[in-house]
Amino acid sequence: MDLRNHSTVTEFILLGLSANPHTQALLFVLFLGIYLLTIMGNLMMLLVIKADSHLHTRMYFFLSHLSFVDICFSSVTVPKMLENLLSRRKTISVEGCLAQVFFVFVAAGTEACLLSVMAYDRYAAICHPLLYGQIMSKKLYIQLVWGSWGLGFLDALINIFLAVNMIFCEAKIIPHYSCEMPSLLSLSCSDISRNLIALLCSTLLHGLGTFLLVSLSYAHIITTILSISSTSGRSKAFSTCSSHLTAVTLYFGSGLLHHLMPNSGSPAELIFSVQYTVITPMLNPLIYSLKNKEVKVALKRTLEKYLQHIRC
């Protein structure tokens, strides 16, 4: 569908994080560094998991997909933000804005589903260790991962299919550094009732639904850990899920604060948005590498093999 036949607006203006040129220069350097760390950190996780046979397990299969999603999540918004920080004309086409919203839906929805799947994996490993291989069969965990991607894409397709029918009249300023569905809905001068219903269903499914699944899994995990008599046993059981619990708290906590804030471009709203879409993808590989002994050992082995290959 040709959007120009239905709209008098062909582009939006992104106000970004600051209008001060000196602040913009500092923000460019800061977010460029964060973006490079995000890409390098998540690529490192992907390469280590691929190279080390000790990490060819269910949990690290999930983690490799999480790292790939984080690369996508950051790449959807940060490059355009960096471009606008250096540009005087901070615009994005309607088509580009809709494309950005689409991929934000895909990345955010898939990550929420993956985190809930990983919580279920930890539940099966800790609460039913003897049946873990049967519960988390190869067929099931592959289906769970591709189901997560499928739900993310389906959610994005439904919302964008409805969004392309919106009419944008005069207002075209987005008080943000990226395009998000609430911003587009507030700029539309057409009926958005169906869009609001779709957005509400998305929030309930990928927000509340996945959070409830994670909460139920960890309720059982905590109960099981507390029932272990020895202190060392409790510590060992908790260590197997501490990295994931940290990542879940960071993602859902920042996501909740981001979506509860009014879409007004206020400093608090922008800070929570940056935390959710920019900082969290950077921190995930750090959380899983610094708090996970297996990853640290695998990284060391991979580096040693690489150095030996160079010497030879």
TrEMBL record:
It is found in: Cell membrane. GO terms for molecular function: G protein-coupled receptor activity; olfactory receptor activity. The chain crosses the membrane at residues 25-48, 60-78, 98-120, 140-168, 196-216, 270-290. Keywords: Cell membrane, G-protein coupled receptor, Membrane, Olfaction, Receptor, Sensory transduction, Transducer, Transmembrane, Transmembrane helix. The keyword Hydrolase does not apply. GO terms for cellular component: plasma membrane. This is Olfactory receptor. It comes from Bison bison bison.
